[in-house]
Amino acid sequence: MLPIITTFAWVPPFARGFVRDIRARWACEEVGQPYDVVLIHNAKTPEHRCYQPFGQVPTYRDDEVEIFESGAIVLRIAERAGQLIPADPAARIRAIQWLVAALNSVEPFVMAIAVNDIFEADRDWSKARHAKVAEDLQARLHDLEAALGDTEWIDGDVFTVGDLMLVSVLGGLRGSQQLDSFPKLASYVERGEARPAHRKAMADQLALYAEPVAA
Hints:
The chain is an alpha+beta fold. It has helices spanning 21-31, 46-49, 70-81, 89-119, 126-148, 161-170, 183-194, 196-210; strands at residues 4-8, 36-40, 59-61, 66-68. Helix 1 (21-31) packs parallel to helix 3, helix 4 packs parallel to helix 6 and helix 6 (161-170) packs across helix 7.
């Protein structure tokens, strides 16, 4: 069977290009793995929660596993293909380290400003809180740019699962000007998103939401 990625059948315009199935799609494209997509209208149903207890997307299954969480999914795709993850033990664990760092040490700051400025923009305290969440995000981006330095990818000249996840997370800042003060990070994201596999994955996601919603 082809691997199956589950995602939403429809999302509002502001979310298009940001739904996290893009990470699984990108990983599949990078390793040359064809896949099928299953569309759901509601992630909070008991049926979907059997696969994703938090009522989110994506989920993933192949002929051996059935899992959720984009980081675990990307790792599974990489390990199954023997690509995007170095064979050398030290380089391998560094790639995994950066995948985890993207999700645990960077994404919470990216999401904090998205939640404040988009999802909770109508709250009384949102405008006052913006400065603090933006300051925290900028501090984290400063540290990340220092770690990247002048390398092409986060651990040198080889693109790995760590880069895929970091670029995906930083892609959440697309259109926000938050990367304007970090030219090395901005170029890093641009390099990642210019990869043919990312372009294909993004085009496929956007094409999905360009279609009328089936009843």
